[in-house]
Write a structure and sequence with these properties.
Keywords: Membrane, Transmembrane, Transmembrane helix. This is M56 family metallopeptidase. Pfam families: Peptidase_M56. By secondary structure, the protein is an alpha+beta fold. The protein has two domains: 260 residues, no CATH class; 72 residues, Nuclear Transport Factor 2, Chain: A (Roll), CATH 3.10.450.360. Helix content is 45%, strand content 20%. It is built from 14 helices and 17 strands. The protein has a five-stranded mixed sheet. A hairpin with a 5-residue loop joins strand 16 and strand 17. Helix 6 packs antiparallel against helix 7.
Length: 456
Amino acid sequence: MEAALLYLLKANVVLALFAAAYYGLLRRLTFFGLNRVYLLVALVFAAVYPALPVPALLPAVALPALPITVLGATGAGSETAHLEASPFLNWQLLVLGTYALGAGLLLLRLLGQLLSLAWVRRHTQPVVVLGQPVRRLAGEGGPFSFGSDIYLSDSTLADTQHLAAALRHEQAHVRQGHTLDVLVAQIATALAWLNPAAWLLRRAVLDNLEYLADHAALQTGLDRRAYQYSLLHQQPGGVPAPALAFHFSFLTLKNRITMLNQPASTPGQLGRYLLAAPLVIALALGYTGTYAQAPATIVLDGPPAKGPIPIYYIDGKRIEPLTTAPLAGLNPDDIRSINVLKGEQAQQFDPVASKRGLIFITTRAGAATPEVIAFNNRVDSIAPIYTSEPAEVNAIAPKGLAYITKNYPSARVIAVTKYTRVSNSGVQYRVQLAEGKRPFYVFLTPQGDFLTEERH
């Protein structure tokens, strides 16, 4: 879940960077082909780069510490540390659910638009106009194109004075394959719907494609003034899914006429691309590499420990002197259990460890090896080792639920974690409760008997 949120964060940040660079440096340039490449790279790169392993371009920043909860094994004072279980309902799940719901609705809307266009195509008649195969659409409305099809309404066909200009504009859309850009922009907007930069980039893609088609139409020999005059006489609308079709629109008409009269950008202005795209990509890769290389740290719940550094064992091997290398190479998802001994318990295991404490880390890969099993049995004889996994509320026996209801009538259940003892597979349940804003824990046997209560 955290990985999905981090992916979304990175993708949306880079979309914002690309949008800022485009609107700040490139929007008014007449290098429409380069702008098309830039915008497509922006949308594709934002979707791909968070998942790529990249080197850090900036100093690594430590990730948040991985919390470990100290569990009282039987209420007798022994203490064992475990990875903290995430609550079933939390803000991360809520954010992801909301985000996915919005993306799903927009993707369904896109599917509906595609189906609408398919319906329109079925109800059109193929004809040839000025040597170009088109599809005749009954009624009024402006010309538009999608895929390899050009759609001309009866009103457009009747306007013979401006028909050639409209047809050449739509031919440019089809010839240059602009539908692909539109679909990429629509999908990107749906997947990043919460980010205003995604909508700005979508608008930029659609506008730039119109500029490209206008420029290509003029290259066929049309008079610039007459072409602009034809734009003013085109009718908007007439398309069930206008967001997916190229058509004349009053919303973009002003910008299109402005760009038609914009002086051609000079070769010296190409340097803006050398500033915009590499800068954005470097910032994105640096941001990703910073977090990709940052090792997760493992600490105990509560304030930072003071005093001597504890002695670490990883899969039964003592790490002494302690360096960051063994811990930096550990992925929290690969850890099966963590056990902590201190005071008299640490002294029982190692006489010189009474003041330093001991931390035993067992990985999932090493847990089944004979050497690690024998080592953990030795540790377990001093303080029980438990593994943890999330559990449903219905895993608690009715007796346990009755105990909670009776003794904590104003508390609500936040999460349930099942702890299994490594040596004998003994099970106990930790129930996370909350009264007000402060959580606390109640430990129960599988039969629902009360073991202990833990408050921080």
